[in-house]
Write a structure and sequence with these properties.
The complex is a heterodimer.
Chain A lengths: L3 E12 L2 E12 L3 E5 L6 H9 L6 E6 L2 E2 L7 E4 L13 H6 L3 H4 L7 H13 L15 H14 L4 E5 L7 H16 L3 E5 L6 H4 L2 E6 L1 E7 H4 L2 H8 L4 H15 L3 H6 L1
Helix pairs in contact in A: 4-5, 5-6
Chain B lengths: L1 H5 L1 H26 L3 H10 L1 H11 L4 H25 L4 H23 L7 H6 L9 E4 L2 E4 H19 L1 H9 L1 H6 L4 H42 L3 H26 L4 H19 L5 H29 L12 H12 L2 E2 L2 E2 L1 H24 L8 H7 L5 H16 L6
Antiparallel strand pairs in B: 1-2, 3-4
Helix pairs in contact in B: 2-3, 2-8, 2-11, 2-12, 3-6, 3-11, 4-5, 4-6, 5-6, 5-11, 8-11, 11-12, 11-13, 12-13, 14-15, 14-16, 16-17, 16-18
Chain lengths: 263, 413
């Protein structure tokens, strides 16, 4: 299997006419624990969306283990942001994990004992087997994250994307999630995580991807996570791109041509 | 009850009511889970112009053209609403509200303009013609059957079939659309399919029971099921059952008790059932929750009384009878009745409970002062509260903690 898990080439993406990602070129090596870092609105979640296939890029391509993403049958696991999940939904923990088996099951077929056993195995891998019959809303923050990681395992995903799993969790939960992440890495899985806490990057991740609409830098944390790169990510120069994007959006939507002419 | 089963006209009304309620409650679960119960409302009203146009173009009340017209109207409705939401940046609910009211009014105008001489009028759109079910018949395989029963049965069969075929796909789409999209499910197509199903359901129930019942049955039974259930499958079953109960109770009460509009009574019944569920649902109902809370308070009061009386009896004093009209008083009466307290002193099992509680209290106080390093004035109050929550396993943990704390003092504090 290839050493590169995700290869992104000249990726540009726009919400309506407003670009949120410009010309991204990056390779994420297999088995890495990679943090995606950048200010709000830097396009971190859209980048995950493009890799996942839920967002359509305007330009460029993505390869998953050397296969173009639209032809790849590699499943990519996704652990969504906590706020984006309806925790009152009538599903139990095991039901959520079983959803990971649906794709391979195909249309019109019902999950059976094999799927159930497999889902239980995946739950055990994250230490949640005891709680399999809980309604998902009854779980603590760390347990909720682990259920979705178990679902990614049930998909047999070699690549797992997570959108801010550490946001608003306590220290003990953070520790459990870290343990699970270490296990995933031991399994040779590639994990890409949107992360906000710059303090912990060096401890938690071996790769880092600095993003602010454009790719600022990417590579091993030791050489890439430097003060200079951080300044370039969060500093002033790149806001020009933001201005340009705003101008393009105004022109295309035809709202204020005069104002954009002033620029 | 017997004569309703003997009277064929009454029996037909009951059957139609049950079929319509169950069909709507099943499809309603999907909408409720997507927080789109109001889509049922919108579609039930928005299909009217499609129905009428189907009728005007063919000049007959054949089922097929009216069905097709209605389904097209439902699709147009959802497309315009989606377009308004995404392109004109309107709020989703507002977009839906604007579109369906416009379409519905258009439908009413069409009725007034073109169908005056026929028995299709605005009020029949609202509450249907369930009372005439028995007399509007059609031939099917040589049998003469009430038309509504046939159409609604078809809708129910379609609903159940689609539900079973796309069970897991619809579940994933509702719970986690991004998972559905990332695994290559055609989410948009599935959602539109669901919409068509809602439209078919609404139209088939329309003639018999009108829009009131369609709207109520799509929204209310699934909501009740949502309060009672924590799995998708059980929610479908409970929703259908609730629909069934509302239909039977509503029809019977409309005929025998208040002599009133049947669909209206069914909707009213389901509303009452919802009220009962909100109040009495075992897990989340207001009364059971309040009951459990007050039971807990009484238990705390009982344990406190026993502990107090034990402490007093050690210095040879008696616990005085508390004010009987209070939580403590109620707890006191219970303790005296079962004999845990006699003459203001704990007896038998009461004594054991009191001892355990005092042990928990002192364990926690020591834990708080030695391991958490809290000052003395922070120990009494919290220990009094937390002692009631400590179960056996926590006590064992506290004791172990104390042991390790003693063997290597001054760590961790």
């Amino acid at each position: 299997m290839s050493e590169t898990a995700i290869e992104i080439h000249d990726l540009t993406m726009a919400y309506r006419e407003k670009p949120v990602l410009w010309d991204i070129d990056v390779e994420i090596p297999r088995g890495s624990l990679c943090a995606v870092v950048g200010p709000n609105g830097a396009g971190k979640s859209p980048l995950l969306g493009c890799v996942l296939g839920t967002h359509q890029p305007a330009n460029g391509w993505i390869k998953i283990f050397d296969v173009p993403s639209d032809r790849s049958d590699e499943l990519i696991g996704f652990v969504p942001q906590r706020e984006s999940v309806d925790w009152d939904f009538p599903v139990q923990v095991l039901d959520v994990v079983m959803m990971g088996t649906y794709r391979r099951l195909g249309w019109f077929r019902w999950p059976g004992k094999a799927q159930k056993d497999w889902a239980m195995e995946c739950l055990s891998a994250v230490g949640m087997a005891d709680l399999h019959s809980r309604q998902i809303g009854e779980l603590s923050g760390g347990q909720q994250q682990r259920v979705f990681i178990a679902r990614a395992l049930a998909q047999d995903a070699k690549i797992i994307l997570m959108d801010e799993p550490f946001a608003g969790v306590d220290a003990a939960t953070e520790e459990t999630i870290r343990t699970v992440l270490a296990d995933l890495k031991k399994d040779d899985r590639t994990v890409v995580i949107v992360h906000h806490d710059l303090q912990t990057i060096e401890d938690y991740f071996d790769h880092v991807l600095l993003l602010n609409l454009r790719l600022v830098a990417a590579g091993p944390t030791k050489t890439t996570f430097t003060r200079e790169n951080l300044l370039r990510t969060y500093g002033g120069q790149l806001t020009l791109l933001d201005e340009a994007a705003e101008a393009v959006r105004r022109i295309r939507s035809g709202r204020s041509i005069r104002k954009s002419g002033d620029l | 009850m017997i004569d309703i089963l003997m009277n064929p006209a009454m029996l037909d009304i009951l059957i139609v009511a049950i079929l319509a309620a169950v069909t709507c409650s099943i499809v309603g679960v999907h909408l409720t889970l997507r927080n789109r119960a109001m889509l049922g409302d919108a579609i039930a009203h928005g299909v009217v112009p499609g129905l009428i146009l189907g009728f005007i173009f063919t000049g007959s009340r054949e089922v097929a053209p009216m069905f097709i017209g209605a389904v097209i109207a439902a699709l147009i409705l959802s497309l315009i609403a989606d377009w308004l939401k995404e392109r004109a940046e309107m709020d989703g609910g507002a977009a839906l509200g604007v579109v369906f009211t416009t379409l519905f009014s258009g439908g009413i105008i069409l009725i007034e303009l073109y169908t005056r001489e026929i028995d299709l009028d605005a009020s029949c759109v609202l509450h249907g013609l369930i009372e005439f079910t028995h007399f509007q018949r059609m031939e099917l395989f040589g049998w003469s059957l009430p038309r509504s029963i046939v159409t609604i049965s078809i809708a129910l069969a379609l609903n159940l079939g689609a539900l079973l075929l796309f069970w897991k796909e619809w579940k994933v789409c509702a719970f986690d659309p991004s998972l559905a999209r990332s695994t290559g499910l055609p989410v948009r197509l599935l959602e539109r399919g669901l919409l068509v199903l809602v439209a078919i359901t609404a139209v088939s129930c329309f003639e018999a029971v009108g829009s009131i019942l369609v709207v109520a049955m799509i929204a209310v039974p699934p909501t009740i099921a949502g309060i009672l259930c924590d799995r998708f499958g059980s929610m479908i079953v409970v929703s259908a059952l609730t629909g069934l109960i509302s239909a039977v109770a509503g029809t019977l009460s409309a005929v025998y008790v208040v002599d009133s509009n049947v669909p209206g009574m069914i909707a009213l019944t389901s509303g009452l059932l919802l009220g009962i569920a909100v109040l009495l649902a075992p897990q989340r109902g207001i009364l059971p929750v309040a009951f459990r809370l007050s039971m807990w308070r009484v238990r705390v009061a009982r344990e406190d009384l026993l502990a107090d009386s034990l402490q007093l009896s050690e210095s040879d004093e008696k616990l005085t009878t508390p004010n009987l009209i209070s939580t403590t008083g109620f707890a006191w009466i219970q303790l005296v009745l079962v004999g845990f307290i006699r003459d203001g002193k704990p007896r038998g099992k009461g004594k054991r409970i009191a001892k355990t509680l005092l042990r928990k209290r002192s364990l926690w106080q020591r834990f708080a002062s030695e391991r958490l390093g809290l000052p003395p004035d922070h120990l009494e109050g919290p220990a009094h509260r937390i002692e009631h929550h400590l179960d056996e396993s926590l006590m064992v943990m506290l004791e172990e903690e104390e042991q390790t704390g003693k063997s290597n003092p001054k760590t961790g504090s």
